[in-house]
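help with this record:
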Amino acid sequence: MRASIVAALDRLFARKEGQALVRLLADAVAGALPALATATQDWCDDIHAVLVVRLRADEPDTDLDIADAAARFLAPEFDALAEDLFTAALGRGLLHLGTTE
């Protein structure tokens, strides 16, 4: 599961859309503009939310009440792992930008 998430993030940050996000996060001016900073944060939050869903790896036939209870119990671990995976992928994306310019 983790390897497929890492591969998907690497594919994202190899594409123009992902490179744009890395550039926005690395640009101090972009962070100073409230609307752009909010949009960038929303973009990161959306990616983070998808990572958490993938880490949950619920099966279609899973009892939703049990899955939700387990997810609430494990939420801090899912959030921390998603953050670690996202941060590492952003770092690799930043390194990749340096080699393509």
